[in-house]
Amino acid sequence: MKTSDPHRRGFRPAAETLETRQVLSAGAGNTIAIMPGAIRAPGVVEQIEFKVGRDSFSAPPGRAVLLGVDVVPTTTSTAQPTVASIRDSAGNPVQAKTYATAKPIQFQGKPITPAPIVRFDLGRRNAAPRTFKVHVAGENNSVGSFLTGFYLVGDVNGDGKVQRKDLNLVRKALNSKVGDPNYVFDADANRDGRITPQDLRLAQQNLGVRTTILPLVTADLDPDTDSGLQDRITSHSVVRLTGVASAHATISYKETDNKTEPVQVQADASGRYTVSIALAPGTNRFQVTSQDAFGQEISGTIAPIVLKADA
Predict the structure, then answer these.
(1) Are residues 92 and 197 in the same domain?
(2) Domain total in the chain
(3) Do 215 and 13 meet the contact criterion of CB atoms below 8 Å apart?
(4) 214 and 248 in contact (C-beta within 8 Å)?
(5) What is the 3-state secondary structure (H, E, C) of 61-90?
(6) Which of 61, 151, 225, 292 could be stapled to 68 by a disulfide with Cβ–Cβ 3.0 to 4.6 Å?
(7) Cβ atoms of 31 and 119 closer than 8 Å
């Protein structure tokens, strides 16, 4: 599923059933988390909760974490979502700055809207994660579903960390804008459609910051438990699945027709996990759900696994 907002051309979050056995096909660049929401009535503000802490972020001493927050309508939605405010657990507003430059750029007939950037202090080494909420409103009394994307400012290559090679990529794209061959979406820190010295300064402020949060979870059947051809038809009554998710995320497997008991496992510090699952005779369809420390939940079904005695 692609979003329809022009300034999120590279943002393609979608929970879907895939033959490749990926629960989420992100293609999301430096987006670290994607959370859905819906504005249910005109004037109603939706709240999207997330957490920031040392369990999923790290930064050099004295340096804060810069995250961008972007909201877009889902493909078929008529919503015009906008970030009204970002607040802490006590309801106090958190400063979120939008870095706009010159006049708005038009892309496919629509203005590109800069995304607010928020500075988060991780606190002392043993500080507990802090809870925040993005308040999303519908412009022009619009209603409908939307997606909130959180991205790591300056992470141009999308590897979850801001390094000097990212700064070099920003420098190479300087003075470009949407439509230019050297424009790089993930180098556009403030999401205003231009690569300017402001984007380089923002990336420099985030130098050394890392995160273990990912906007995806994968699920792959171990070939050793897929007897004969790798066709997901097996004679093994217990199979192994492996995958990648956010570090320490909780991964749940549930057979959609309740033929077997649900199974839960936790990803390790690198985000990798392995789970053994009992199959029922015939076709087994599993829903896979990942819940991480940021508050992101990803859920989707994977291609069926068939238990057949003569496979």
Answers:
(1) yes
(2) 2
(3) yes
(4) no
(5) CCCCEEEEEEEEECCCCCCCEEEEEEEECC
(6) 151
(7) no
The pLDDT mean for the chain works out to: 87
Query: What is the sign, positive or negative, of the torsion defined by CA atoms of 32, 37, 42, 45?
Result: negative
Give a yes or no: residue 125 inside a domain.
yes
CB-based contacts of 201, cutoff 8 Å, min separation 6: none
Q: Residue 34, class by beta-carbon neighbours within 10 Å (0-12 exposed, 13-18 middle, 19+ buried)?
A: buried
Would you call 223 helix, strand, or coil by DSSP?
helix
| CA atoms of 1 and 8, how far apart (whole Å) | 13
Residue at which a domain ends, from 211, 234, 253: 211
Q: 247 and 160 in one domain?
A: no
Last residue of a domain, one of 179, 211, 243: 211
Q: How many CB atoms lie within 10 A of CB 140?
A: 7
Place of tokens 């699952």: 277
Residues 65 and 146 in one domain: yes
**Confidence band for 192, pLDDT divided at 50, 70 and 90:** confident
Task: Name the residue among 244, 203, 200, 242 with its Cα closest to residue 223.
Answer: 242
Of the candidates 308, 310, 239, 309, the residue with the CA atom closest to the CA atom of residue 276: 239
11 occurs within a structural domain: yes
- State the amino acid at position 105 in one-letter form: I
Each as own residue / partner, the long-range contacts of residues 257-265 (CB below 8 Å, 24 or more positions apart, any chain) are: 257/285, 259/284, 260/284
- Domain hosting 236: range is 220-307
Does residue 84 sit in the same domain as residue 196? yes
pLDDT tens digit string along 280-304? 999 999 999 999 999 999 999 999 9
* Least confident interval from 3-17, 168-182, 240-254, 277-291: 3-17
